[in-house]
Write a structure and sequence with these properties.
Elements: H1 2-29, E1 48-55, E2 57-78, E3 83-88, E4 95-96, E5 101-105, H2 110-137, H3 142-167, E6 170-172, E7 177-181, E8 189-190, E9 195-212, E10 224-229, E11 234-242, E12 252-259, E13 271-286, E14 291-293, E15 299-304, E16 310-314, E17 316-321, E18 324-328, E19 333-339, E20 351-354, H4 363-369, E21 379-381
Transmembrane segments: 7-27
Coiled coil: 145-172
Domain CusB-like beta-barrel: 209-276
């Protein structure tokens, strides 16, 4: 009997406890608070972000293009007369000046023909002088005098032809350059228009580039350019030619940069990279970690305005490296979020923790990105 009473008391106690718990639940669900209900939690504090304040700097922009070095002039010299090669005076690789004899052909009877032509001219000159004397005395008609004069002129023309033919056996360089090739051999017979040698002129040197249609409007004749060759050598030059029409296949424009090459030190035919300045732009240097995408997928940077609210600025990269990037699109004076931008939304108010020990103009990052000599005037490739 006592055992049954104990079970009954336990059951009543359990039912009472359940009723108390459920009663409290329904009271809270109905919006009625009991005196023992806990107080509402305090409002969440604004997110804290790390911010660096900096000023925009002037960054020089340039077009970078690949090309190759080409000679200023190339000419294939050909024989203007026939004959056997008597002398070769400039072998392949030789440097020649304008007018230097490269090769000489056998004269054969050309000297004799010149002598006959000279004698014929002297004969006709005597005849013409005699004709003039007779004409003045009335012993010769004007027609006879004209015929004598015509014969003298014909003799002089034949003399000039003989002189030119003799001169043609000496094949000369038309300008200063280097003999690139010379296919003739001593004793070989050369026909008219036969190839004797090819000469290249590498001073000045010309770098041929292909520029895209998006960038061609930024280039003009006379514009400065800096060229680095595959050999490691560098030269400064100027644009001497900009094509007026794009290539139909590539839609690119041919641009030529001319630069000095004393003594032909840099050979033609090698690869080259040209950097052509096109102006400057105000830009900020930022770490890659500071860049983010907005909801539209555009690249940009989050900043904090004067009211400590987050703003997003679409950015264009004008120069980049593993250390960071120079970008446009930000205000000249910007408070850039460097840490925590991924956890805050545009328009959200934040708490600001200013970075310490960071240059306001990004000069430390610039030092890591650019050569020391370029820190004062950073440059941007396009």
């Amino acid at each position: 009997m006592d055992l049954n009473k104990s079970y009954l008391i336990a059951a009543v106690f359990t039912l009472g406890l359940a009723a108390w718990v459920l009663g409290g639940y329904f009271v809270k669900s109905s919006g009625k608070e009991t005196p023992d209900a806990p107080a509402v939690a305090d409002a969440v504090a604004p997110m804290t972000v790390s911010v660096r304040t900096q000023e925009a700097r002037s960054v020089e922009q340039y077009i970078v293009a690949q090309g190759q070095a080409e000679p200023n002039r190339t000419v294939t010299i050909r024989a203007e007369t026939t004959g056997q090669v008597a002398e070769i005076l400039a072998d392949e690789g030789a440097t020649v000046a304008a007018g230097d004899v490269i090769a000489r052909l056998e004269s054969n009877d050309r000297q004799a023909r010149l002598a006959r032509a000279e004698a014929h001219v002297r004969e006709q000159e005597s005849a013409y002088e005699a004709s003039e004397t007779l004409g003045k005395k009335g012993y010769q008609t004007q027609r006879q005098a004209d015929q004598t004069f015509s014969s003298l002129q014909t003799a002089k023309a034949e003399l000039e032809e003989a002189r030119i033919e003799l001169e043609r056996i000496e094949i000369k360089a038309p300008f200063e350059g280097v003999v690139l090739s010379s296919p003739i051999e001593l004793g070989a017979y050369v026909d008219v228009n036969g190839e004797v040698a090819t000469i290249v002129d590498n001073d000045p040197l010309v770098v041929s580039l292909r520029i895209t249609q998006q960038n061609i409007a930024d280039l003009k004749v006379g514009q400065a350019a800096s060229v680095t060759f595959a050999t490691g050598q560098k030269r400064d030059g100027k644009i001497r030619y900009v094509a007026a029409r794009a290539d139909e296949d590539t839609r690119t424009f041919r641009v030529e940069v001319e630069l000095p090459n004393p003594d032909g030190e840099i050979p033609s035919g090698i690869s080259a990279e040209a950097k052509i300045p096109t102006g400057s732009v105000m830009a900020h240097f930022v770490s890659p970690a500071a860049l983010s995408l907005n909801e539209e997928g555009k690249l940009g940077v989050k900043t904090v305005n004067e009211d400590n609210k987050v703003a997003f600025h679409t950015a264009d990269i004008v120069l980049s490296d593993v250390n960071g990037a120079w970008i446009t699109g930000l205000p000249a004076h910007a408070r850039i979020i460097t840490l925590g931008h991924g956890f805050v939304q545009i328009g959200e108010e934040v708490q600001v923790a200013e970075e310490q020990g960071n240059a306001s103009d990004g000069s430390q990052e610039a030092a890591a990105l650019l050569p020391t000599s370029s820190i004062e005037e950073p440059t941007a490739a396009r």
